[in-house]
Amino acid sequence: MRGDEGGFRSFAPAVLIAPTQMLLTRHEARYQVRPKVLWHLLLACAAVTGCAPGAPDAMGLDSDLEAGAPLPTETPGPPAPTHAAYVIVTNPTRSSSARAAPAAGRAADAAEGGEGLAYVSLPVGSFPEASALQIGSRRGSFQVTIPVFEGGFDPVGVPASVGDTLDFELLRGTTVTADWFEIVPGSSSPEIVRTSPSRGKRDVPVALSLLVVFSEPVDAGSVTTSAIELLRSGSAVSVRVEVSSDGLTATLTPAQALAPSTEYVLAIAATIRDLDGDSLGSDQHIGFTTVALAPACAGTPECGRIVFVSDRDGDPDIYSINPDGTDLIRLTRDPAADGEPRWSPDGRRIAFTRQTSGNGNTEIFVMDADGSNVLQLTSFARFSNAPSWSPDGSRIVYSMLSDGSDPWQPFCYCSANLWQVRADGLGTPQFLFGLPGWDAHPAWSPDGTRLAFVSDWQAYDFVQDIYLLDTDDLKFTPLTGDLFDQLNYLHPSWSPDGRKIAVTMSREVSIDHYWAAIATMNPDGTGLTQLAGGAAWTSSSWSPDGSLIVFTSGDTGHPAVFAVQRHVTWVAADGSATGVLVTNGWSPDWTR
Predict the structure, then answer these.
(1) CA distance 324 to 582
(2) Whether 503 contacts 521, CB under 8 Å
(3) Bridge-partner residues for 182, per DSSP?
(4) Which fold does the domain 6-32+79-183 belong to in CATH?
């Protein structure tokens, strides 16, 4: 912990696992136990445990200090044990665009009342087994619990003044495994909490945006293309650098796709300053290597194109890209959020969803493959989603909130049914099928005789299973799950030959944290085979030759933990190989 500004009230070394990787060499200075703090630790040790000078104290540190001896002055103490993990606490700032902890509840009032926002963050890997960190002020001004993901979390602003004492409790589930306190400092230098890609990362996709997360808001004027560079063999790569409105992140977008199987260095200069004029302690160099292999059919016309969603340019929009990560094209530019793009069978049009109101309502739209000729197909304001084309391209089946076939009757948010609409926009949407429960994620079989979909009708419990619906007589057959099974089966997608169905398996393991994987099975529900880990709720899509599956990987957990990281990823249909195609992307679909 930060021995110069805080101290432990208790300590549980069994759960403070060594950080998987120290991001910055200057952090080593933070592991030095200052002499004054060491003296206080020894006194506390003597009072509580009875340890004596010259014997190891409770933290495993030896001391040669004798009773009554003067305190050392500037000689640094020994490095703390390698399992030391720490929280970064900054001095208060008054950035008007700062992101406050969602549960602090009074950040705006605090700013008006004389307080600022102190930023608290935890580098990735600091506490791998922790689930959350609870932060409270001894003045009683707030208490907030921040979810921990992969051992850390991005900066969160809490209302504080210089000299305030912040109490921390590290949680594993509901169990407190360690607690300590920190004093809000009067000044602090910015630090780098994490980068994406991280130091030493391999198999980095060639089409990506790089991310640098700072411990506190930085002066955007100090974050220039010379202050943050992407280097290849020592030469700068052309990039666009943007600083977020809250000053906590910098995004680098290369002008073109990176070279495969190549080493790059993200160079961050010490000249970057925070809002008080304090700069980073030293230059930082983060090396990574791009992915070596592209999908087997990449670069051939038969491999088609992939559409996906990304917010790399602001709002979620739809993009298309070649399967080898080249020729990235932005297709939509509407300020509303677009999602769930799906190719028509002939590859000439794309069905997608678009938010049409402030409450998040989505409707079904279609457009040409180049993003032109956008046409709205639904307008019931019933959260229409998950479009799927009929094999002949004439109709689109989708899911919509409804309690039956009448779209205008009152409904509850616990029911959804399957509807269909003509792809040319003529006529009105028609009710297709509904079970008592949540019916969603329809997927038309290649021959058009069956629809795979998900429903929770067995228990009406929002735990989804896969069903097959005969499109002629509307008889349905369950393929997965048992009554009250807590494993979700989601987003079925058919292989081009109709012999396999890809599904997402998902289970909530803690609040807002999910285990998820892509799997395949036979159309009768047998032969379930897990292929690769994925993001919760990801959809999947097969390559035209059926050899590969694209899906979304990454973190889709609590937004207070990290800026959500999602990547378009491919996996061989037999699970033998996998790779990331593009970062900052989700909901991919491959041309048929």
Answers:
(1) 9
(2) yes
(3) 6, 166
(4) Immunoglobulin-like (2.60.40)
Q: What is the mean pLDDT of each run of 10 residues along the chain (592 residues)?
A: 36 31 31 33 37 35 37 38 64 64 42 72 88 89 85 92 93 89 93 92 82 95 95 94 94 89 94 95 92 60 87 92 88 95 97 88 96 94 93 96 68 76 93 86 95 82 86 89 76 96 86 83 94 89 93 64 70 87 91 85
The strand pair at 540-542 and 548-554 is best described as antiparallel
**Residue range(s) in the chain whose domain bears CATH number 2.120.10.30:** 301-590
Query: Which 3 state secondary structure label does DSSP give 181?
Result: strand
User: For 192-290, CATH number?
Assistant: 2.60.40.1220
Question: What are the residue ranges of CATH 2.60.40.1220 in the chain?
Answer: 192-290
CA nearest neighbour of 173 among 202, 145, 136, 208: 145
Q: Is 199 helix (H, G, I), strand (E, B) or coil?
A: coil
H helices of 421-477, in order, are: none
Overall size of the chain counted in residues: 592
- CA dist 130 and 10 (Å) reads 16
DSSP state for residue 113 in the 8-state scheme = T
d(CA 95, CA 247): 9
Give the β-pairing of 201-204 and 284-290: parallel
Query: Which phi and psi angles does 140 have, rounded to 5°?
Result: 75, 20
Quote the CA–CA distance of 349 and 175 in Å, as a whole number.
53
The strand pair at 362-368 and 192-196 is best described as unpaired
What's the CA gap between 411 and 407, in Å, rounded? 9
Residue 507, both tokens = 């289970």
Hey, what are 264's tokens?
């790059």
Helix, strand, coil fractions of the chain, as percent rounded to 5: 5, 40, 55
Domain 301-590: CATH superfamily, name plus number: TolB, C-terminal domain (2.120.10.30)
Distance CA 335, CA 135 (A): 36
- The label of the residue with tokens 């956008």 reads 374
ω into residue 429 within 30 of 0, thus cis? no
Rounded Cα–Cα distance for residues 295 and 205 (Å): 12
